[in-house]
């Protein structure tokens, strides 16, 4: 067993803060990712909160501020369960660093995402109980962890717009894959915002605050944005996920025996959309053939795909791309997607193979 109850074969990008992703072949194995290989992204030390004296404070622009224990949350609100894929904004950054370096950021492969069954209360029910004011246009989530990268030092805080917060798929989750949340995934309670960058799914949640403006915390106002440019002083806050698609097996650089090659991967559409088609190409993107694609297990869940290819002996290059239910596709090359923080790479994925 590795750190934080993870398997030994996790790709560990950093021990403190702990950042790790599952190897592609392991991630490919199941539609719901076992917790011991679910990726983990942390910006600071993992807080150890005692569920017995932990409380959730709901405050700000509400008619009735609340202080809820875990028992209150579990007994006074309907519990719901959903299969949701969380994806870090830095997923697949490694492909961008090949174009140009992205200094200081974790080089996530395609395993900066994982899927779990989350169980919890609907955030909308809790906000209704508190009586969220009409002028509250944003809902902020705060946790006690303080990241060494946050300037000035401050607890982790981000927000989502009111409409997103009130949608029925946003959960305050206390369980994952049938067990209480482990410490590294946010015990005793975390937010789950399907279809949005993982950064908004706040772990170790202690405060839900209804406000007029978005959070001005470091992770909302500075990090997790396409950085400001000369003529865009604000930058672009990352929220909803773009359509993405990746190959999980075989791995890049694999040497394979002759014969049919089974190629598998995942595609993930953003909020309100599903993946409609996945295609692969072995000739650099001139001809494409369709892969078999799973139906999504629910809103915000990935869809796995597979196809069999007959590759001639020698070097081969396999491209994969997806189309979503709105007709949107993906950009051809990581060079088109490169940005200084290396976020939101959703270019066609390429694996190089050698057939003997
Ligand atoms: N919540 C807190 N309090 N602190 C964090 O560092 N990291 C965020 C989010 N929630 C983070 C957090 C980011 S960037 C991601 S991608 C997800 O948690 C990762 O969730 P996981 O570790 O359960 O996979
Ligand atoms: Mo993230």
From TrEMBL:
Keywords, sorted A to Z: Heme, Iron, Metal-binding, Molybdenum, Oxidoreductase
Name listed for the protein in its UniProt record: Sulfite oxidase
Oxidoreductase molybdopterin-binding domain residues: 43-218
Names of the cofactor(s): Mo-molybdopterin
Pfam family, one: Mo-co_dimer
Naturally occurring in which organism (per UniProt): Streptomyces variabilis
Residue span, Moybdenum cofactor oxidoreductase dimerisation domain: 241-354
Entry-linked InterPro entries: Ig_E-set (IPR014756), MoCF_OxRdtse_dimer (IPR005066), Mopterin_OxRdtase_euk (IPR008335), OxRdtase_Mopterin-bd_dom (IPR000572), OxRdtase_Mopterin-bd_sf (IPR036374), OxRdtase_Mopterin_BS (IPR022407)
UniProt KW Cell membrane keyword: no
């Amino acid at each position: 067993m590795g750190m934080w109850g993870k398997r030994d074969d996790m790709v560990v990008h950093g021990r403190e803060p702990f950042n790790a992703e599952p190897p592609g072949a392991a991630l490919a194995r199941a539609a719901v990712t076992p917790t011991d290989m679910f990726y983990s992204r942390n910006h600071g030390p993992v807080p150890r909160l005692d569920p017995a004296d932990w409380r959730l404070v709901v405050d700000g622009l509400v008619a009735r501020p609340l202080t809820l224990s875990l028992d209150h949350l579990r007994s006074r609100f309907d519990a719901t369960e959903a299969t949701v894929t969380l994806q870090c904004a830095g997923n697949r950054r490694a492909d961008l660093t090949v174009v140009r370096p992205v200094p200081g950021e974790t080089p996530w492969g395609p395993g900066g995402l994982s899927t779990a069954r989350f169980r919890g209360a609907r955030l909308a029910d809790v906000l209704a109980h508190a009586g969220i004011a009409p002028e509250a246009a944003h809902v902020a989530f705060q946790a006690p962890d303080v990241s060494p990268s946050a300037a000035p030092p401050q607890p982790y805080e981000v927000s989502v717009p009111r409409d997103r917060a009130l949608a029925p798929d946003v959960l305050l989750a206390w369980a994952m894959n049938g067990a209480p949340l482990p410490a590294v995934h946010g015990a005793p309670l975390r937010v789950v915002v399907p279809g949005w960058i993982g950064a908004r799914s706040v772990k170790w949640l202690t405060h839900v605050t209804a406000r007029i403006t978005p959070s001005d915390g470091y992770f909302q106002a500075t990090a997790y944005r396409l950085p400001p440019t000369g003529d865009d002083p604000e930058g672009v806050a990352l929220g909803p996920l773009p359509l993405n698609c990746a190959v999980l097996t075989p791995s890049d650089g694999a040497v394979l025996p002759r014969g049919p090659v089974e190629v598998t991967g995942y595609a993930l559409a953003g909020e309100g959309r599903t993946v409609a088609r996945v295609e692969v190409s072995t000739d650099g993107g001139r001809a494409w053939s369709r892969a078999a694609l799973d139906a999504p297990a629910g809103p915000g869940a990935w869809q796995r795909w597979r196809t069999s290819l007959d590759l001639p002996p020698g070097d081969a290059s396999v491209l994969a791309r997806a189309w979503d239910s709105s007709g949107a596709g993906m950009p051809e090359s990581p060079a088109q997607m490169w940005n200084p923080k290396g976020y939101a790479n959703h270019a066609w994925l390429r694996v190089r193979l050698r057939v003997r």
